[in-house]
Amino acid sequence: MRIDSDEKYVLDLVSEVLKENYEWQKKFNDLLGDPGKSGRRAKLSVDAYFPENNLIVEYREKQHYQPIAIMDKRMTVSGISRGEQRKIYDLRKEQWARDNNFKLFVITYADLSHKKSGKLIRTEVEDISKLMRLIQQKLGGCY
Predict the structure, then answer these.
(1) CA 88 to CA 76: how far, in whole Å?
(2) Which of 52, 50, 56 is nearest to 90 (CA)?
(3) What does the alpha-carbon distance between residue 55 and residue 2 come to, in Å, rounded to a whole number?
(4) Residue 31 Cα distances to 3, 13, 100, angstroms
(5) pTM to 2 decimals?
(6) What backbone torsions phi and psi does residue 67 show, to the nearest 5 degrees?
(7) Taking a C-beta distance cutoff of 8 angstroms, is the pair 85, 35 a contact?
(8) 101: how many CB neighbours lie within 10 A of its CB?
(9) Higher-confidence residue: 39 or 111?
(10) Where are the alpha helices (DSSP H) in 1-143?
């Protein structure tokens, strides 16, 4: 994952709002992908884990909601397209978070000002304000 990505930009803003550092691309031992031919299952990562709030934050870009040919054409170890696997893994992460008593906060590209391509426009003051409202709505508390 690139440090200049929209994901990292959003997670850094959430960190600023929560006043808490996070673990980027955090992996947990029992959050696993589908088995490959050898039977091995890779650990799935969550976009960010905020330990003080017991919070997992997932940033979902356009490819999580609609097909993007260049990203979805490759087949996975499960024998399904990357787009289908992404949907399955998103649901798996959500269920895993609930089962393990984590708070989960999903932010989508559509929650913030973006271009038609789905890339964020990045108006920091406006984005922080929107994120503060979303966090208050979804998580409660005073942020």
Answers:
(1) 12
(2) 56
(3) 22
(4) 24, 26, 10
(5) 0.87
(6) -65, 140
(7) no
(8) 7
(9) 111
(10) 6-18, 69-72, 82-99, 124-139
Contacts 24+ apart (CB under 8 A), 85-94: 85/34, 88/34, 89/33, 89/44, 90/58, 90/60, 90/64, 92/31, 92/44, 93/31, 93/44, 93/46, 93/56, 93/58
Per DSSP bridges, beta strands 103-108 and 55-60 are parallel
Q: What is the number of alpha carbons within 13 Å of residue 85 lying toward its C-beta?
A: 17
Interval 72-106: pLDDT, tens: 566 676 777 777 888 899 999 999 999 999 999 99
For 17-68, how does the pLDDT look when each residue is reduced to its tens digit (9 = 90+)? 999 999 999 999 999 999 988 889 999 999 999 999 999 999 998 665 555 5
Structure tokens at 41: 């299952």
One-letter amino acid at 131 equals L
